[in-house]
């Protein structure tokens, strides 16, 4: 599932969580892969966002929430 902007992430709890991180511009979820594109709206280098993004994904997996709602 591709979410080009936060408004499109309504059926994806994971994408919603990722869009809450400053600088996340787009989210692509495909199988076991998560691809995130920066939007350029950051106060720090993109590489500094990686720990926040990784932590958000790990927390989501640990909570056993679906990446995309089945509805």
Structural write-up:
- The chain is of the alpha+beta class and 71 residues long.
- The protein is 34% helix and 21% strand.
- It is built from two helices and three strands, in the order βαββα.
- The chain has a three-stranded antiparallel beta sheet with strand order 1-2-3, with helices on one face.
- Strand 2 and strand 3 form a beta hairpin.
- Helix 1 packs antiparallel against helix 2.
- The mean pLDDT is 92.
Question: How would you summarize what this structure contains?
Answer:
34% of the residues lie in helices and 21% in strands. It has two helices and three strands.
What kind of sheet is the major sheet? 3 strands, antiparallel
- Helix fraction bin: 25-40%
Instruction: Record the strand order, biggest sheet.
Output: 1-2-3
Strand content: 15-25%
The global form is globular
Q: What order do the helices and strands follow?
A: EHEEH
How many beta-strand segments?
3
* Classification by helices and strands: alpha+beta
Query: Stretches where pLDDT falls below 50 for ≥5 residues?
Result: none
Mean pLDDT: 92
Radius of gyration: 12 Å
How many DSSP H or I helices? 2
Give the terminus-to-terminus CA distance. 14 Å
Give me some keywords for this one:
3 strands; globular; alpha+beta; 2 helices; 71 residues
SSE blueprint and pairings:
Blueprint: E1 2-3, H1 13-19, E2 24-30, E3 33-38, H2 46-62
Antiparallel strand pairs: 1-2, 2-3
Helix pairs in contact: 1-2
């Amino acid at each position: 599932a591709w979410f080009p902007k936060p408004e499109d992430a309504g059926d994806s709890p994971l994408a919603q969580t990722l869009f809450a991180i400053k600088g996340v511009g787009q989210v692509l979820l495909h199988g076991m892969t998560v691809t995130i594109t920066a939007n350029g709206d950051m106060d720090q280098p993109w590489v500094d966002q990686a720990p926040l993004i990784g932590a958000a994904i790990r927390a989501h997996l640990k909570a056993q929430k679906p990446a995309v709602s089945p509805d």
